[in-house]
């Protein structure tokens, strides 16, 4: 299945004193680079957030920066080619995301509208998913600012993909960062 990738790379990182989370290094590699490398098979990769040098992606921003992942998704979808079948949506703070994660998500879509990674606690990770492009576009509300991603995508048919160890982890706190360094 041909797909594009959208990396949500904005946000205020309030629990990390406002640092640039995507630029944080884990294992010698910035978190943003981990997400972009996981999308190595994508037809196009779109990063939504402040432009950062050194990445061969399409950069864009939501009309009102800081208004959440649904607004970021909508901004990224503008640059998704119409001839791809799916879109992989990733956060930019995922130290364990890999190309194999993306491949499993895309393959798991099957007859569903999309597939999301499910963590060890059984929680769907909405910023670790793959979605059929028409379903994703149709699900977006008219007002995307501050909309809840879970509500927007939760009404679609979703295939759940069990996360492998560490795959669903994200970096939200200094403790998370230390654990992964």
UniProtKB/TrEMBL annotation:
The answer to whether the entry has keyword Metal-binding is: no
Q: Does the keyword DNA-binding apply?
A: no
The organism's superkingdom is given as Bacteria
Gene3D superfamilies the record matches: Spore Coat Polysaccharide Biosynthesis Protein SpsA, Chain A (3.90.550.10)
GO: which molecular function terms?
Answer: nucleotidyltransferase activity
Q: Which UniProt keywords apply?
A: Transferase
| MobA-like NTP transferase domain segment(s) | 5-153
**PANTHER family given in the database record:** MOLYBDENUM COFACTOR GUANYLYLTRANSFERASE
The name on file for this protein is Molybdopterin-guanine dinucleotide biosynthesis protein MobA
